[in-house]
Design goal:
Length: 303
């Protein structure tokens, strides 16, 4: 059933006249008559009685009018809601991110997004890259912050990757350490040190980097998250590799030193979306916020 027929029928019912309805709608009277006839044929009932002056609804016409008004009101509401979604006056943005991205990058991007679009509901869920890609594939989040080291690959068949930045690892030392001078360190200088690491991917990265430098690292404590690693480092229990992404949130009793460019593992950080799926307006608006936050982090790191 054509919605335009219902709109014409409602206008005729309100005005009690084909001519008056035609004038209000900007149609010819014959066009209005044809649409009423088409509606009557589609419903199989007589909707209007033609009188010497105007028209009057039949019993069937009164019945249909109630439904027509409800349908047209629902469509009006639907158009309004769709417009709100398109203009970011409503909707939601579900973000997935790994822990160090949640230190500074994601909060800064979300704050900028909320300032521009305060009516969009925001949520964040934390987890590893593998977990976030699974959530993205299952439709549980709209965009995922993911990372990969040179020995890792990300699936570009199922996901579109928006590159944000390259994130070199720094070495975290207790403030009293002899090498805690803030200048570049060669990994070979740390050959006799104890290490704090418990996350499988990061452990592999540490081991491979040290093997390239000619030694195997001694990992004394299996601590997964970078925030906990800081506590162990500050207590003098060992050293840890910390991503540049987390550097602005480092505690004051820990010193971060860059590794020599030949030694420093560098991971790439991306915003991932599901390929061949329409990008929701909030995601399209969030990506520039991520770009800006990533640029600010890069600028701060070079100072």
């Amino acid at each position: 059933m054509n919605l335009a027929w219902l709109e014409v029928f409602r206008e005729v019912a309100r005005r009690g006249s084909l001519t008056a309805a035609a004038q209000a709608l900007g149609y010819t009277q014959s066009a209005v008559s044809r649409q009423i006839a088409a509606l009557e044929q589609a419903t199989g009932v007589h909707l209007l009685d033609r009188l010497p002056r105007g028209v009057r609804l039949t019993q069937e016409g009164h019945c249909l009018l109630a439904h027509a008004e409800a349908i047209l009101e629902r469509m009006r509401s639907a158009r309004h809601e769709l417009e709100d979604l398109r203009e970011l006056e409503a909707g939601r943005l579900r973000v997935g991110a790994f822990a160090s991205a949640d230190a500074v990058l994601v909060p800064q991007a979300l704050a900028a997004f909320r300032a521009a679009h305060p009516k969009v509901a925001l949520s964040v869920v934390e987890g590893s890259t593998r977990v976030q890609l699974e959530r993205l594939q299952q439709g549980e989040i709209d965009v995922a912050l993911v990372s990969a080291y040179p020995h890792q690959t990300l699936d570009t068949q199922q996901f579109d990757l928006h590159h944000l930045l390259d994130d070199p690892l720094l070495v975290a030392l207790p403030a009293g350490h002899s090498l805690a001078r803030g200048t570049a360190v060669r990994l070979v200088e740390l050959a006799g040190e104890r290490w704090i690491e418990g996350f499988p991917e990061s452990s592999e990265t540490l081991v491979q980097a040290c093997l390239r430098a000619g030694f195997r690292p001694r990992i004394d404590f299996g601590v997964r998250e970078w925030t906990a690693k800081q506590g162990f480092v500050a207590a003098g229990l060992g050293l840890a590799l910390v991503p540049l992404l987390a550097a602005p949130a480092i505690r004051p009793d820990v010193v971060l030193c860059p590794l020599h460019p030949h030694d420093a593992p560098v991971r790439t950080v991306h915003a991932a979306t599901l390929r061949r799926v329409t990008t929701p307006p909030p995601v399209a608006a969030f990506l520039p916020c991520l770009d800006k936050a990533a640029n600010q982090l890069r600028t701060a790191a070079t100072r």
